[in-house]
């Protein structure tokens, strides 16, 4: 199943996961996992780092995470820093380059609030022990001689959960981290990654002593572009899943609940935020705790479908598959624990398919209609708002929704700051931690602009045109659609 990967880091992740998956299927992982670095890095000529020994050492840490274990120095979270890989970034953020002319005015020295800049041989120099990284020197230099080199992971983290330790390695603060995965996606050396539960899922699929269901996020249609959802359903059944459901069905299930909550909030002169994005929910809980009462109590679409499946088949195991790293953390939240057993990313699914030598595009069609266009549109920014408005319309509610659609973590933070200050003019915040929504998730295989087009097309193809119509298929099994 040849495909073009977006980056070499993505390719290396795929190779490690595929080897781990294949050995796990063959039940020889414990005996042969130490050989994987030599299967990937062959010979004595390095390709990415200083030497093949360093390349293989990094791969060993990737294998540890791929097997669901913690790497050295980890705090035990879902997202971890591989110490062996994290050593290539400059630590000093602001530095003076050769472009410094040693001018008489030396505005960089004048604007520094902590006197961290001096001159040696007429050239400016920054005392890194004093520097507070305010950036005023860079702004003041008329020659642009001061560079700003912020570590990519630090720059990518929207909640300032990453710092540099005394050992010059990146450190993730679990008290601040919202598991959005942007650091893992943006690190150019691939030094940050998440734990995988791919071996656990493979073991469950091979056991064949209970049904294992897959729930796929609607963004999937942009990931395996040569295959339809029906063909992917067939492929998943070939690798052992009992059946495959769309997470969009869960979106249809929870939207009436969220719409009812919004109506109550508006009537009370307040506002509501969405709860489907786990990184956005964690952002509120950890960084804006005073706003927790405004978060919808509705569970995410993933949890809704999982509860439905387990209500129908109590002995079932449920695996979510999507572009989101934060979903792995959501599965173990106390208020929803037990619904979803494991969460896989699209990267991990591709690895299992590759290890099984199954190409979804070559599989038979297995089409099934179970969702509305509005449930499927959850995959993109603005989709939740569209669905809430539609649900109110279907219920003949005369409610004026004033939405604030936050596209990415930065917009979410800005909106929450306004809400915290009591100056929010809107009454509904749709929070998506990833730019463009789930289709921009860190573990997506395809981040191209075409992804949104494909999701929109997929949404429009739904045969059930209303949310109420989609929900008629699940009314036979009553479940709680709210967090415990």
Characterize the structure shown.
- With 484 residues, the protein is of the alpha/beta class.
- It folds into 3 domains: 1-67, no CATH class; 94-148, Alpha-Beta Plaits (2-Layer Sandwich), CATH 3.30.70.20; 198-471, no CATH class.
- It is built from 20 helices and 15 strands.
- It has helices at 8-25, 29-32, 36-40, 52-66, 107-111, 136-140, 152-156, 182-186, 198-207, 229-238, 247-267, 278-287, 301-312, 326-330, 346-355, 373-376, 383-394, 409-420, 450-460, 467-471, and strands at 79-81, 94-96, 117-120, 123-126, 146-148, 162-164, 170-172, 192-194, 212-216, 243-246, 272-273, 317-322, 342-345, 403-407, 428-432.
- The strands form 6 sheets. It has a 4-stranded parallel sheet, sandwiched between helices.
- Strand 6 (162-164) and strand 7 form a beta hairpin.
- It is globular, with a radius of gyration of 24 Å.
- It comes from Heliobacterium mobile (Heliobacillus mobilis).
- Pfam families: Fe_hyd_lg_C (PF02906), Fer4 (PF00037).
- Residues 122-151, 168-197 form the 4Fe-4S ferredoxin-type domain.
- Keywords: 4Fe-4S, Electron transport, Iron, Iron-sulfur, Metal-binding, Transport.
Quick recap of the structure?
The chain is α/β, with parallel strands linked by helices and 484 residues long.
Specify Rg, calculated over alpha carbons: 24 Å
Mean pLDDT: 95
Find the structural class using helix and strand composition: alpha/beta
Name the beta content range.
Answer: 5-15%
Main sheet: which strands, in order across? 10-9-12-13
Largest sheet: 4 strands, parallel
**Separation of the first and last Cα atoms:** 42 Å
User: What is the count of β-strands?
Assistant: 15
What is the total domain count? 3
Shape: globular
Helix share bin? 25-40%
Unreliable residue stretches: none
* Count of alpha and pi helical runs: 20
Organism: Heliobacterium mobile
Pfam families: Fe_hyd_lg_C, Fer4
Keywords: 4Fe-4S, Electron transport, Iron, Iron-sulfur, Metal-binding, Transport
GO molecular function: 4 iron, 4 sulfur cluster binding; metal ion binding
């Amino acid at each position: 199943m040849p495909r073009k990967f977006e980056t070499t880091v993505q390719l290396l992740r795929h190779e490690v996961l595929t080897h781990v998956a294949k050995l796990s299927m063959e039940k020889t992982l414990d005996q042969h996992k130490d050989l994987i670095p030599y299967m990937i890095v062959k010979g004595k000529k390095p390709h990415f780092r200083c030497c093949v020994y360093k390349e293989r050492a990094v791969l060993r840490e990737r294998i540890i995470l791929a097997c669901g274990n913690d790497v050295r120095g980890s705090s035990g979270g879902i997202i971890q820093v591989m110490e062996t890989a994290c050593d290539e970034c400059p630590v000093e953020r602001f530095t003076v380059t050769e472009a410094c002319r040693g001018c008489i005015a030396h505005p960089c020295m004048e604007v520094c609030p902590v006197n961290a800049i001096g001159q040696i041989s007429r050239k400016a120099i920054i005392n890194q022990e004093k520097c507070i990284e305010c950036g005023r020197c860079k702004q003041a230099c008329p020659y642009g001689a001061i560079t700003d080199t912020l570590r990519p992971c630090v720059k990518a983290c929207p909640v300032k959960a990453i710092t540099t330790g005394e050992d010059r390695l990146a450190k993730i603060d679990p008290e601040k981290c919202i598991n959005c995965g942007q650091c893992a996606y943006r690190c150019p050396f691939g030094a940050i990654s998440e734990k995988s539960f791919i071996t656990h899922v493979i073991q469950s699929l091979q056991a064949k002593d209970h049904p294992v269901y897959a729930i796929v996020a609607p963004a999937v249609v942009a990931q395996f572009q040569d295959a339809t959802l029906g063909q992917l359903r067939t492929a998943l059944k070939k690798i052992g899943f009992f059946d495959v459901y769309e997470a969009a069905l869960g979106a249809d299930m929870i939207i009436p609940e969220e719409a009812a909550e919004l109506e109550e909030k508006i009537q009370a002169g307040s506002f509501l935020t969405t709860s489907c994005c786990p990184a956005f929910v964690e952002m509120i809980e950890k960084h804006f705790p005073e706003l927790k009462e405004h978060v919808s109590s509705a569970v995410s679409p993933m949890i809704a479908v999982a509860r439905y499946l387990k209500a129908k088949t109590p002995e079932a195991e449920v695996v979510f598959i999507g572009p989101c790293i934060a979903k792995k953390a959501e599965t173990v939240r106390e208020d929803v624990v037990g619904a979803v057993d494991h969460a896989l990313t699209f990267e991990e699914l591709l690895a299992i398919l590759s290890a099984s030598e199954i190409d979804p595009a070559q599989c038979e069609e297995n089409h099934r209609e179970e969702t509305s266009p509005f449930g499927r549109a959850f995959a993109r920014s603005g989709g939740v708002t569209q669905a809430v408005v539609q649900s109110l319309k279907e219920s003949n509610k005369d409610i004026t929704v004033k939405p604030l659609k936050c596209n990415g973590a930065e917009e979410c933070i800005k909106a929450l700051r306004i809400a915290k200050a009591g100056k929010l003019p809107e009454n509904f915040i749709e929070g998506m931690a990833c730019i463009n929504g789930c289709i921009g998730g860190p573990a997506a295989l395809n981040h191209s602009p075409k992804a949104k087009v494909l999701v929109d097309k997929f949404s429009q193809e739904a045969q059930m045109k209303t949310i109420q119509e989609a929900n008629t298929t699940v009314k036979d099994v009553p479940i709680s659609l709210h967090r415990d």
